[in-house]
Protein 1
Amino acid sequence: MNSLFRQRLPQLVTAGIFLLLFAAAGWRYHEVNFASAPNVANLFIGNACLGIIAVGMTLVIFSGGIDLSVGAVAAFTNIFAAVLIEKHGMNPLLVILASLAIGTAFGAAMGALIHYFKQPAFLVTLAGMFFARGCAYWMSTDSIDIHNELFLKLSRDTAKIGGDTIHPLPAYVFLVVLAFGYVLAQHTRFGRNLLAIGGNEQSALLMGLPVGVTKIAVYALCGAGAALAGLVSTLVSGGDSTYGIGLELDAIATVVIGGTLLTGGRGHMLGTLLGFLIIGTIQSAITFDGSLSSWWTRIITGALLLGFILFQRLLLRATQKRLP
Amino acid sequence: MAAVEPSTPPLLAMRGVGKKFPGVIALSGVDFTVRAGQIHALLGENGAGKSTLIKVLTGVYAPDEGDIRLASQPIRPASPRDAERLGISTVYQEVNLIPTLSVAENIGLGRQPGKFGFLNWSALRRHARIALARLEIEVDVDAELGSLPLAIQQMVAIARALDLQAKLLVLDEPTASLDEKEVDELFKIMRQLRVAGLGIIFVTHFLDQVYEVTDCITVLHNGEFVGEYPTAGLGRLQLVSKMLGREVSDEEGHAAEGGRSAAVGGRPSSETTVPLLEACQLGRRGAVHPLDLTLRSGEVTGLAGLLGSGRTETARLLFGIDRADTGEIKLRGQPMKISSPRAAVQKGLAFCSEDRKTEGILPNLSVRENIIFALQAKRGAWNTLSRAEQGRLCTHYIQALRIKTGSPETPIKNLSGGNQQKVLLARWLATQPALIILDEPTRGIDVGAKAEIEQLIAKLRADGVAVLFISSEIEEVVRNSTRIAVLRDRRKVAELSGGEMELHRLLHEMAGVAKTHE
């Protein structure tokens, strides 16, 4: 039991920080009902795209990789869908499928480059980021409003929570993606192979695990996630090729604050949910405060991130000290 | 020749296996036979082809020629996974598991129980517990592997290997990082498996372990098959001479001694002179047992021993690369602490590493930069050498050591191995050391360059430098040394000087067989 506790310590710490932050914000802004159900729901809705991307990023980081292209890929599918639907009047379902296929194929192609040419994921996905962002600008540099019936219907879908009306679809998408990611990571061979590859790729190879396929598949999944996030953002705010600049870095921060080791091999999908909640709580608290500027989100995120990296280093050192 | 009657078909039969790499014939015409219920030692010195043979067997390399049969069926494993499927499981020296995952996961990875692609965690844990219990290992299956002692990790690796319904278990230097008690545990498991009818291939450098646990020995030398022998019928001396690629009878041993030119090694200086460096009970757990070693100015001390006997480890302790657990070092009679290579350089020590590719040359820098590197480090960053001084030094050493290079500005990676080695020597000579440690300075270089390096050693000795000379070629050690310290199984077992330094005597000491009366 002790060993399980030890392994889960980063996630437990994250959970503790989240509860502390949420309680503090709830107490500080209790007159404006910070800790209310609608606010929590809005936290999920407002950050859904980040969350969806963070799930894919978690899987990639499990495998010891990184994907810097996700923000740009999301921007590409965002504008791609908007242009095809609004300017060319194409069937929205077809466009959704095509967008997801492009994101998946793009991710798979990067994965293949990383695996077969033994290139660092950082470089390949950095190139992918420039490429996808460029393609997004190429599609259109104007922002495009969506008038398509299906998209409007989806975005206007409402739910009642605590007396407030919200548009919950993005949050639903995120929760489904999260559940999918959780099951994939914890309860399938694929998920465990990812962690094995991140733990020691050479060993994974010698253990006879399908390293190449797994690596390519995880970038494909991450690309699909980014494409989905792009579609959700089109739904929420229309086509915009400047969407998601820096989103990849937010996603990495979310994953690391969630207690996943950036070098791979160790982590938990629920940690990413906690990281997501922490970042969401900070953002939401700053919005509620009104007197604080938005950059405080970044300053606090930065401090938390740094704290976490140091914490993991210490944890690692404590583990190693037990060796003879 | 085998211990078992030839009528039983062998579990593994490799015949005429050959493998070439660019410029190197790693294996040629190697036969290797393992029977069920047998622990078979695969032995040989560096470059003998053991690891290539293992890699051919486990599907890492494809052989260029030859034929492999497992239980009479021809096989050609294309990957480690393929080999595992055929029933050949391997446990490597470095534990090749995933340190960040739990013990249970490490045992089950790739073949976890479950349905429809979903894992059954409780079955996974149960399965792991059973696999470990079979080997009588007690360990928490939920523990993260990396937090466990290396020996336990090794056992987990074996549990994983056996879990694959293995017929043949390959143990590639599994004992290198284990202590005696842990080795005993491992041997217990190996004997258990032998009774269960597994074939076990055991690669090791420790001859005591070979005699303790194996039934049969196959010796390779320079990529060629030397022979297969029942362990009980092969004496240590015979074994060592086969590993070194020679058949030494008494007569030949003396003949080799006759070939030694007494002038090269020099006479031991009077014992009354103050030694340059004295190591007293210097040792490090897991590297070398405490040993005494005295190095004198104007003497070449040879360090002889088989691979893994602790030669390099001793040198690393002297130079402060590894920290000694016990003992002390005196320099010119003064106690001294060598805490880092940097401190050693400041005190006039120099170390020419065995592995020049990864620990020596800076491949993309020029010959000049490679030469001045250590001297500059010794002087400190602020006390730079002028370009003219650098040039003078380089020209001097390029001429003195006859380094064949286009110009001092040629990148060192373009030079031949022998010339790279000379540049490394020049690097250390430029610091004008009082003691230079040469770890395998002649490995992988051609005959001409070898002779030049030997001349250089003689010159250093004549100039009053203390030299510690390590080489796997024992004739070379005999030829160049003033005295020879012999290491065996990480202990210093003898120190020979003068007339005692002859091939036969040295082989006896290295093999650990008492020399009979002459």
Protein 2
Amino acid sequence: MLRTLFSRRNFLASLIAASCERLFGQAAGMSSGGSKAQSRLPPTGGVYSKFTDIAAQAGLNAVMVYGGEKQIKFIIESMGGGCAFLDYDNDGWMDIFLLGGSRLEGSPAGASNRLYRNNRDGTFIDVTAHAGLLDSGWACGVCVGDYDNDGFEDIFCTYYGHNKLYRNNGDGTFTDVTKASGLFDATTRFGTGCSFFDYNRDGHLDLFVANYVEFDLQHPPIPTMENPTCTYEGTQVYCGPRGLKAGRHSLYRNNGNGTFTDVSEASGIAKHRGSYGMTAVTADFDNDGWPDIFLACDSTPSLLLMNNRDGTFREEGFDRGVAVSGEGFEQAGMGVGVGDPGLNGSTSLLVTHFQKEASGLYLNDGKAQFADITMDSRLGVETSYVGWGAAVADFDNDGLPDLFWVTGNVYPEIEKKYPQYPFKGPRILFRNRGDGTFEELTNECGPAISQLHASRGVAIGDFDNDGDLDILIMNVNETPSLLRNDAPPGNHWIKIKLIGTTSNRSAIGSRVIVHYAGKAQMQQVLSQSSYLSCNDPRLHFGLGAAREADVHVLWPGGREEKLGKIAVDRLITVKEGSGIVPNLSHALK
Amino acid sequence: MNSLTASGLGKCVLRSCIPLFLSLSSTVGLAAGHCDAPSALLTKTKPATAVAYQNLGQWFEGKGQLKCAAEAYRQQVLLAPGSANAHLLLGRALQVLSVGDEAALELNRAVDLDPSSKTARLALGALEHDRGNQVEALRQWQEVIHLDPDSITALDWIAKTRIEAHQYTAALDLLSNAPDNEDLVVDRVVASSKAAFFEQAITTGMTAIEKHADWLRLRMAVATILVQRNRFQEAIALLEIGLQSQPDQIDLETLYLRVLVLMGDLSKSKPYAADFLKRHPGNFDGLYLNGLLERQDGAYDAALLHLKAAEAMRPDHFDVHFNVGSALAKLHRNEQAKAEIEEAIRIDDSGADVHFQLAGVLRSLNDTAGAKKQMEIYQEKLRSRALHDQTISLAAQAAQKLAAGDAAGAVEAENEILKILPEDAVHFYDLSLAEDRMEDFAAEQVALKRAVELRPDFALAYNQLGYLAIRDNDETAAAGYFQKAIASAPQYAEAESNLGSLLAREGKDAEAEQYFRAAVAANPRYTDAWINLAASLAARSMFTEAREAVHNALRVEPTNPDAVKLLALLPSAQPAPNRK
């Protein structure tokens, strides 16, 4: 019997197939991804550092308020703040500065940035109020540097709102000199990354400031399910950054008299718009003696601004292989670890990304040509979490810099629906195996690493001056974490503090190459890295079994100093032009 | 597309089932080669009757002997030339045999003999569609809708035709209140998503799936849209439920595997992909997706084996070439990589990443200039995508503000978009909608005129300009705009109805009738147009036709108050002719 069955299912099938066909070669939304999870190799075992969170007994007890706890309505709540190890009182012990935020409904009592002075006994005391640093705005980034070369480290903080420059008065207090220094901007901006650096090599620290997006809290974009930039996996979340206008980045030249001049236009910085700037790293990537700028950018190509040595910069992130992933995908660049994990005497980058994207490892060939070695180095095994503050640091002092980053989601709403996207995540640690690959040890280094937190900023430093690198972490709406490192015995180390004379006093931009046991490792003195954070300015090198090291210092002003056969397991202080000088009285136990 | 591939012609599908050795059956005198039928049946053809040949034809059809069936039906037609059914049976058999012209003759004859035969019209519509005569095909399906507003097959055909022609809103209009049927829901879902009403598409689909868990094609359609919206987890859950009930449904399995791969979790996707390929050796998707996963995991040689096999099966597949090229590049086989990636770009140049890959390969081959050019293309595509995201966000905000009654905010957002896309006709149209809400008609008109200037075939904008002209009492201009709307979109029912209304207002009811008829032809479920048609007919005292038009409206919307009211006003008997 003939029946009427004129179905056009083939037509439908072609419609569906056409929709799927191009999925794999094309970004489909907010987070374009690209580097997928790799298979894990069997663990190799071996001894490694153990970490213990001693924040509570150390007295770091203030909750760092930042946005809604159950729901984040606007993008400003999601950022979280950076943190810093700095020696603001020049006693040779690392103090702690942490950035906090606010709430949409207003700041709760106790919300503020926090300064903790190191008591030199494993504990700290909250001196925020005394120091004049109480502030409860939407702080994001911190960079540290002695902008007035008076011998005391100053602090610059970025905000959603108005950035602030705090001059260190040298007496344990700070003064907000934003307006007096010419850095005040009346418009509301979304400051994120910042870094002091001497781009014109005049001996005075200039300032680079990144801005994230243009966002008006009075007229914010309201999330709807129809707007793909306000949804994640079918859940309505805050809008952005995609869909929002990118912020304009700024460069301020230090006039040498305590004031700055905005040279964003003249330097060419202002024209590089379109990228959502996050962490800023200023360092000499091509080893030409002039500092460049790497700006990790969220969901857009990261920027590599190369110094033209004439007060201007050129953007070469794409040409130099560090703007996007090795497969050409824009990723959610948040934090940046800086170091020399390949021991090739150059400054390489670890960039943290969103969940479902591996953190990217970009190997510098010494001339600022970067190769994305993420998958070759086996970092692709970990794609479960949103990554933030990051570090390239030799925690076990075996002479091979390891990789570390913290995690935490930006959408507290989604874990109820999808447990695989938890708001709190573990700390991620990869041991350098010395063969170009890394091995994840997140579950092998003690509960302080595997515990779950929604973390943002990370600073690396030796707060107890015991010769290994500890970890300070800013957790959102929690007290901070201070992970004391107990490195395995037997390995040696050297720590180097630099004091500039003709170069800037903080020696920011100095490059130090340490030669040990046939290896050469470079580190630079940075004003910001990780996620909007600042590490201990003393450069720490694990040396493994080596009992001596040669130290080569390249000062930002151009001077070089070579220091041979330095004994290990000690801090040395090198003053520009004077070689090794005595350490500060309380420098080491 | 061959619409008859799934026809109910027994087990015979496609031409391949035509018997290879045809011999004339002396018993029945068919010129169709060898046709063996049971003697009982053959006996019944003596003496020859139409019914006997129909039975014989159907028997042949059941056995897949279509030529024999056609010859039997031909005998039936000879014996019963006035039988619509005989012509229909012959026409459809010929259609399957791809004897298109003859089939069309027979089916047209069937329709002529029985204009109310939905089956004949559907068959004729399908035939004309396959022959490329879309207008005639559409006419036949619309006639079916007139006969039966709930005809699923006709609605399905018309909806799909509209979707193919990118007339998504028209398709959705047609399908509003349509019967609960999987094909039609899928059409609605597809039309909604194509019109960028993604949430509507998902909600429509999910609601239907809750009622009909066994509608797998709908499940797949919704899953696809969820993936497009980056809602992978929901897509996975939806497909997994489907696979529980139908684990061996290969289309479902394939889509599931694709989504797993896209999610990037190798721990789940790799074993599933390997198992899929084991169960379906030689399957294109199995080869392609296993290769892709191996490439992602750094197993480039293994990836190439699978990808090359897939490439041999589908040499026109963008992504296979792209992945082969990427794997070759990793293996430093740059010349081959270059050829593969260039082929991928030739097939589909829409993505950015492929240019990035090519730039890398060209750099390795020391073609600095070529690499630079590719990077420029790549970066330009990234910039375009960022601006696209920005406009999507602004457009969503504008729509949201408009819905919340903040027309000024919507105007502001649309103007922001137009700063980014100063020559985007659609956003000028959207701006006009917001200005209309603000009752700033002068500004609305400026925006609409700019829209049609940028897109001279922008039917919606012409239609709206027509409204504005009526507001300004410029009926001549209004008519002109409606005509332009119709010329730009010949199936634009609203514009047809508007022009009809305008003419009716001028007392030109006969002319108006033509436009109303065109409107209901374009959308037989357009109740307003049916009511307008009825009114224009009633105005000329054509009460019988008017009643029929009202009844058509009521068949679509049984409680439509205007239709009910008009029906009550119409005299029950036809008066003496007094037509204008």
Protein 3
Amino acid sequence: MSAPVVVADGVRKRFGDVEVLKGIDLTVHSGEVMCIIGPSGSGKSTFLRCINALEMVDGGRLFVQGQLVGCRADASGELYRLNDREVAKCRQHIGMVFQRFNLFPHMTALQNVIEAPTRVAGRDRSRARTDGMEMLRRVGLADRADAYPRDLSGGQQQRVAIARALAMEPELMLFDEPTSALDPELVGDVLDVMRQLAHSGMTMVVVTHEMGFAREVGDSLVFFDDGAVVEAGHPGDVINHPQHQRTQDFLARVS
Amino acid sequence: MLLLAVAMLANSLVTNAAWDWPLVWRFLFARTVLHGLLLTLEFTVFAMAIGIALGIVVAVMRMSGNPIVSGVAWAYAWFFRGTPVLVQIIFWSFVGALYPYLSLGIPFGHEFVFFNSNQLIPVYVGVVLGLGLNEAAYMSEIVRAGILSVDHGQSEAAAALGMQHRLVMRRIVLPQAMRIIIPPTGNETISMLKTTSLASVVAVTELFKAVQQIYGANYKYIPLLVVASLWYLLVTSVLSIGQHYIEKRFSRGVTVRPVGGRAR
């Protein structure tokens, strides 16, 4: 397989007294679509948020593109936290899509998309606009470029959010339950966009409850429970022949 | 009943000669009064400018993860909200008496530059400082409430795009916080307009001191207080209208439609 994009080596995270990640070992390769499933509170979203340093890892090592996430090791292996500017720089190459879209409500769809390219990447405004329109066309919303988020449906908002993340030309896309807040009839459009993106070769980590998507689009499927990876493998194998009782119970409940 | 009371009041306003409307009219545009009005407006504008700018800084400091930074911000609000603004105005106006000379140089060593602080901080500046520093303490709490009202997902989404903390504040959080910040800030501005009358105690001839001087000479207390009140009312009205338009500007994308209106 091709080069690893994300490498997790015994990643641990605790919130107060609760250990939410109890030593996660995972590798995501370039071009791979990894789906993560598991009951709520199993730590899957927390793990995703660790990948772009929205949460800081407490133990173990987490690498993206060979670089430690959120910190730097000196010659003796001592870890130092990166400052605001350095963390922000790392995040530029990682797109993230949230369950609740989090579009900026005071900006139009197009303004949402070009905000980071112009203010962060320092791209020329007119070029950013052209690129931004292209991104909106890719997600099927070129005609809604001037609409404010409140005038868009949930599915449209989520597609704008995907376009916004793609506008920074990321090497890795993280999806945190991207369809969980949507009305059932709107889920399809968002999944279509994600499927397209997967086919274009994007490396993706998707926390989801959509078994159909995981089976059809995913290259690998990971089952999280109680802060640990219980089972991982090819989606078809994990879904059709789960080896562990906990995986079997979970799959029985969601399908 | 209410109408009757209003009618009686109107009647007395017109018929009671002690109101002396011709005198009110004559002094409404008197030089001293207009000059006082101008000073009042200047104090309001500069004090609010300091109050808002410093208020934002203090609010952001207060929400910092660094305990020293947030502690300093807390202490600032504690001190300036805890002492009367009148005392602060008098203090800043006469701070020159406390430190008659300000100098730049090595402590206990050679001094490079001297200032006579009575010249450096004239009473005018003292009033603006007193009002502005006090206002910043109140504004910081208003700004903090506004920042807290913005969903945390907004700063996360901005951070995930690679935006640094300052940019997130300036471009994403503060513009949304404005919706919450503006109405109480309008209140503060209107309140400030009237609080500037405290400057009369340090012998600054703003609007209130101006009419005081006039009725001190002609003993027409009531008509001249009416003169001042009319100007305060007029400016307050203009400010309210301005606030309306600023609110509209910052409600882009979140205009609340009446209940029962079409959802989308």
Protein 4
Amino acid sequence: MGDVSYVKIDLTSNLFCKCTVVIINTKITEMSSQISTKEKLLYILDDMELIAKELIENAIAPKHLKLSGPEYAQLTELLVAKDEELKQTLKLAQKQADIEEKMDVLRLEVERRDKDINQLQTKLKEAEQILSTAIYQANQKLQSIHRANKRPVSSEELIKFAHRISASNAVCAPLTWQQGDPRRPYPTDIEMRLGFLGRLSDPINGHLLQQPNNISDLHRLGGPATGDIPASQQNQFAWLPSGEIHMSVGGQGSVPVETRNHKQETEDVEVMSTDSSSSSSSDSQ
Amino acid sequence: MDSNNESNSDLQKRMTVDDLNIEILPVFYEIIKSVERDHHDNTAKTRESQDCSQKVLELQKRFDQARSQISLLPGIDYSKEQQLQHLEALKTQLHLKQELLYKYRFMYPFQMQK
């Protein structure tokens, strides 16, 4: 392209060289398939303009400067050939416009596929996240199942434990509660002593150093003694009229268990009984 | 600006080879004919020369118009070979994307696990 403009400027006055330019242009357009059709068309137009200009100049030039017959005829033929080439190239352009239409359709299709792929990828990513969360949770559950399998707990023990919890943490007394029933809505002294804190303050037992590792162990330790509470109402604990509780220890007789404020406890019992009666009355209402 | 752009793109869409006005030879022929016509009358000569210069201007205008119209033709930014290559590339792209979609769709046959 640079060659063309250079030659055009340089050779405006020299017909021979102009013809050379035209021929060079022609060779460029014919030989190089890299040149776009648009450039090719513009080259041909440049050539035609150049030839036309030269022919018109020749027509109005003085006689001694005019071209010879064969040269003139050659130029005219070249112009006609260029015109023909222009028309051929325009046909090519028409074909290319058709191809462009097809390409537009294809481009639209590709764009639509792109959208679909993007959508699918987003959904797959979401699914992956959900699945990985589910797998993580399932793994956790499996781990706890393994843990549970390693140290199985009998259902009876569980139910006893549940009873105990509901007995010692209830808001009001159970319906079957009667005077003399050692069950309380709070941990009793015996339970406290059996518990972790009771052992902490008991230096004789040496539990300061050998503390159970976790609370479940503690419950386990306390379980058999406390779990039997409903059944051992007559056996292990005896409610004495004096208000003291006696606990039987391995058939060695009963050991008096100090209840610090047994008077207050009896008051509590009364309060509890009134509570239950009031609640039942409110229920009946 | 937008309306200009729109009108330009409309023109680009509508411009086809049939719409082009690239008839150079007839105008050129007219010019040569009027130059070579020999007039005896001076006034006729002057008129003819004015007419001739008008036609030369018209020829120039025709060239410029042809150039601007050619730049509006669609799909001629590449040679035909290059354009065909692009077309092939697009077809391959579409095919690959289609395959990818197919793969995605049937990647996890959940219904097979029943």
